[in-house]
Amino acid sequence: MPLLSVRMRASLKGKHVSGAERIVSEEDIPSTLCELLKRPGEHDFLKLTLERLEEVEEIAFDLSISSHKFKSVEEGREFALKELVRSGVPEWVAKKGIELLSKGANPKGGNMRGAVLLDVETGDRLEPDPGRGIRTVRVDWKDRSAVREVLLRRGFTDRTLDALAIALKNIHCGVLAELCWSDDPDYLTGYVSSRELGYVRITPLKEEGDHLGGRVYFIRRERVGELIRCLERRAVLISLSP
User: Fold this and answer.
1) How far is it, in rounded angstroms, from Cα 218 to Cα 41?
2) 193-232: per-residue pLDDT in tens?
3) Sheet of 235-239: strands edge to edge?
4) How many CA atoms within 13 Å lie on the side-chain side of 102?
5) What residues contact 14, with CB distance under 8 A and at least 6 apart?
6) d(Cα 101, Cα 81) in Å, to the nearest integer?
7) What is the C-alpha separation between 126 and 111, in angstroms, rounded?
8) Per-position DSSP letters for 175-240, written without gaps between them
9) Angle in degrees, CA 35, 161, 72, rounded to 5
10) Distances in Å between the alpha carbon of 28 and those of 2, 22, 34, 94?
11) CA separation for the pair 167, 150 (Å, rounded)
């Protein structure tokens, strides 16, 4: 049965406020569109993209999930730093990634739409457009409702459902480690993910009211072209079991 990628992006006064993606069959398009149209909060622009997929790769949900709470942002970020180092990122490169998100990764100021690509050896930024970054798209769960039920039973939220899918595809495509926290001023939890550590949720990684956030992908320079094509073009469905 043919599958389609359905992507939604909404903004308010030029600032991104919501985004989501599904990979679904044709018969599920109407209900999916209704779901995504209801998702954004206040917005003045919304774009829906439907794309027929020629090929979809299936991978397994094979990452552990852990959660860690700290008394302060400083403690949370210190723990994130140690986890990145445990994943094979040199300490000074990991510190640079944390600093980029804390100060705003867009060279022109503020947040980026996509992720920073940081060379794990030199600390150089490798994304072709530093203002846009690289976006991980064309990814979803094979049985989204089943995975959602599992995560909700463990006390997680829909945010975890979507972020975990992105983390899994990133690792599959060759990202060595990822650092992320949201640009939502009211959401203070972020994560570090890698093949070695799994998906590690950390609270807090920023102060309440802070609008800065984003993603940093720690990668190897020699694979940057292949990795970008995988993140942005390859369609991936994630199953609960191999």
Assistant:
1) 32
2) 999 999 999 999 999 999 999 999 999 999 999 999 999 9
3) 56-60, 235-239, 139-141
4) 15
5) none
6) 13
7) 17
8) -SEEEEE-S-TT---EEEEETTTEEEEEE-SS-TT----EEEEEE-GGGHHHHHHHHHH-EEEEES
9) 120
10) 11, 10, 10, 41
11) 17
108: exposed, middle or buried (Cβ count in 10 Å: 0-12, 13-18, 19+)? exposed
pLDDT at site 40: 85
Q: How many residues does the chain have?
A: 242
Contact 190, 160 (CB under 8 A): no
d(CA 116, CA 125): 7
- Coil, strand or helix: which one is 85? helix
| Res. 131: pLDDT tops 90 | no
Q: Give the relative orientation of helices 73-86 and 91-103 as an angle to the nearest 10 degrees.
A: 140
Q: What is the CA radius of gyration of the chain?
A: 17
Give me 108's structure tokens.
């022109």
DSSP state of 28: G
Rounded Cα gap, residues 138 and 133, in angstroms:
16
Residues 6+ apart with CB under 8 A from 54: none
pLDDT-based confidence at 143, cuts 50/70/90?
very high
Distance CA 149, CA 155 (A): 10
